[in-house]
Amino acid sequence: MILKGLYIHIPFCESICHYCDFVKRVPKNKEMIETYINALIKEIKSYKDHFKTIETIYIGGGTPSMLDVNQFELLFESIKDISPVEYTVEVNPESYTKEKGNLFKKYGINRISLGVQTFNQKLLDYLNRKHTKEHVFDVVKHLKSIDIPKISVDLIYAIPGQTLDVLYKDLEYINELDITHVSCYSLILEEKTYFYHQYLRGKFEQMDEDMEAKMYQIVMDELKKQGFEHYEISNYAKQNHYSLHNMIYWTLGEYIGVGLGAHGFIDQYRTLNHKALPKYLSQPLEKKDLQNQETMLQDEMIFGLRKMKGISLSYLKERYDVDIFVKYPRLKEKIELGLIKIEDGRLMLTDKGIFLGNQVFMVFI
Ligand code: SF4
User: Fold this and answer.
1) Alpha-carbon torsion 310, 315, 321, 325, what sign?
2) Which residues pair with 115 in a beta bridge?
3) Sequence-ordered alpha helix ranges (H) in the chain
C-alpha cells in the first residue's frame, strides 16, 4: 500500500548552525512565531479533504522543539482528526522538556527524530550546536520512560577535525542509547552558510575524500554490528523501523508540504511554498508544476536507487512502459564499472556504487 504523508515545517531556530542551508531563521520575538503558527494552521486546513488518507505526519524544521507547549498544542489540535500510523516530531536536545514530551505522548506522537550530529563537545561547539552529550541521554531516557516507541538520531561525519576515534566514540554512544533508527550524513559544504564564508576566506578545509569514504565504511560496519539494517544510503533501522514518511519520498508517494519553503507532491503536482516569511504569510504557495512521465521516471530512478533494495525492473516496465536500458544507455556502462547490479529482478547500487552514487544518478539528469 502506498502511503500519503503530511510534512509541516517549523522554520525557527534559537541559533544557526554553521553548516546549515535549510529554510530557517532566528525569530524576532514570540509574536512572530504565533503569527506563523496561525498562518500554518490556515494552510493545513486548506488540505482538510486529504486528512482521512494521510498516514504519516512529520513535523520538521528548523527546530520544532523550540515551540512552547501552548504553540505545540495549537498545532496538534489543528491536525487531531488525522490518524497517522507514524507521527514524527524533530527535536533538538536542548529545547526538549518533560512537559513537551508528555504533550507529544498525549497527542499520539510515536516517533522522535533527535538532532544530535555528534557527542563530541569540541565538534558540537565547532558546528555551533547548543546541546551536550548529557542532554541527549536525558532526552532519550525521558522519551523511553513515556513509551515513545521509535527514536531516531541524526549524526554527521566527516566534520573537519573529526578523528576516527571520535567517530568510533560517537557510534559507541549510539549503541548505549539503544534506539531504533539512525540517519547519518557527511558534512556537505553548502553555499550561504557560515562554513562557506570561512571557506572563501581560506579558513575551512573539507575532509579529504579518502578519509570521508573510510568514515562512511566505519559508520556502515559499526551500525550493522549493532543490529541496524542499512536500508537507504544515509539511513539505518532496527527491526524494520524504517522512516515511513521518508519512504514516501523515496517511493514517489504523495505528500502534502505545508509551511515556509515546504515542498509537496500531490495530485501529480510538485508544490513549493515561498521561502520568505512575508510572502508566505500572504500566500503560501509559490509554484506548482505538473509532473510528466519523464520527470516522474527520473525521480523514480534517483530516489529508488538510494534504497539499498533498489527498484523493481518489472515495476518500472509496468508503470512507465519503458526499457530503462534503452532510455538510459549509460546504465550499462555503470554496470560494467561495478557501480550498479541487477539482483532478483531489481536494479540496485553495489557496495562500490554506494560510495559513488552521484556518478550513477548523473545518468538520469
Ligand atoms: S538547528 Fe537544524 S535547522 Fe536550525 S540551524 Fe541547526 S541544522 Fe539548521
Assistant:
1) positive
2) 154
3) 30-45, 69-78, 98-106, 121-127, 133-145, 164-177, 194-200, 209-225, 244-250, 277-282, 293-306, 313-320, 324-327, 330-336, 351-355, 357-361
> Does any domain span residue 28?
yes
- pLDDT tens digits, residue range 217-261? 999 999 999 999 999 999 999 999 999 999 999 999 999 999 999
* Contact (CB, 8 A) for 62 and 10: yes
Does ligand 1 come within 6 angstroms of the Cβ of 66? no
**DSSP class per residue in 290-303:** E--HHHHHHHHHHH
Q: Is 13 in the pocket of ligand 1 (CB under 6 A)?
A: yes
> Is the Cβ–Cβ distance between 350 and 320 less than 8 Å?
no
Are the C-beta atoms of 117 and 156 separated by less than 8 Å? yes
Q: How many domains in the chain?
A: 2
Q: Do 186 and 158 form a contact (C-beta atoms < 8 A)?
A: yes
Between the CA of 154 and the centroid of ligand 1 the distance, in Å, is 12
306 and 242 in a common domain: no
- Is 93 a residue whose pLDDT tops 90? yes
Domain interval for residue 321: 293-365
pTM of the model: 0.97
| Closest by CA position to 50, among listed 278, 267, 317 | 267
Per-residue HEC secondary structure of 135-155 comes to HHHHHHHHHHHCCCCEEEEEE
Question: What is the mean pLDDT of the segment spanning 322-350?
Answer: 96
Q: Compute the radius of gyration of the chain from its Cα atoms.
A: 21
Q: Which three cell numbers stand for residue 55?
A: 498516514
Same domain, 245 and 299: no
For a ligand 1 pocket test, name from 18, 26, 63 the mutation site with the most ligand atoms within 8 angstroms of its C-beta.
63
Contact at 8 Å (CB) between 234 and 184? yes
304 φ, ψ to 5°? -60, -40
In a shared domain, residues 244 and 309: no
